[in-house]
């Protein structure tokens, strides 16, 4: 029997450690400046809106909508070979931040721009090392 390779894992550093730990617990975390301003993504040490380094993590609802997407039919890692097409989408979250995430669905034709999505719940989400969504 041929074993399926494990998914590649994200590089963890001090900027994204809380984000990755949150995802492993089934939470989607976003940063914002403690002094105010919108939530943002990707994890970084300075708020892109206020310039503040005093940042806090807040839990996002995990709900949003697809802005744009791509069907990937030629994966670049063997762990994805049996899962094509892979749907990679820009997701606009309810909180205002946007991120790239994978959308899991049995019906790729159901994926359209403006489709509502939500993060996968645990334990299903634990399979994926980065935020993963389903059609809501």
Could you explain the architecture of this structure?
- This protein has about 140 residues and is mainly β.
- Helices cover about 5% and strands about 30% of the residues.
- It is built from 1 helix and 7 strands; from the N terminus they run αβββββββ.
- The strands form 2 sheets. The chain has a 5-stranded mixed beta barrel with strand order 3-4-5-7-6. A two-stranded antiparallel ribbon has the order 1-2.
- The longest helix is centred in the N-terminal third of the chain and has 8 residues, at about 15-25.
- The chain starts with 16 loop residues before the first helix and ends with a strand.
- The relative contact order is 0.20.
Describe the protein's topology.
Blueprint lengths: L16 H8 L4 E5 L21 E5 L3 E10 L13 E8 L4 E7 L11 E4 L12 E4 L1
Parallel strand pairs: 5-7
Antiparallel strand pairs: 1-2, 3-4, 3-6, 4-5, 6-7
Offer a few descriptive terms.
136 residues, mainly beta, two-stranded antiparallel sheet, 1 helix
Portion in beta strands: 25-35%
Outline the biggest β-sheet.
Answer: 5 strands, mixed, barrel
How many H/I helical runs?
A: 1
* Helix and strand element order: HEEEEEEE
CA-based shape: globular
> What class would the helix/strand composition place it in?
mainly beta
The first-to-last residue Cα distance is 36 Å
Radius of gyration: 16 Å
- Provide the spatial order of strands within the biggest beta sheet: 3-4-5-7-6
**Overall average residue pLDDT:** 94
| Total beta strands | 7
Name the poorly predicted regions. Answer: none
Fraction of helical residues: under 10%
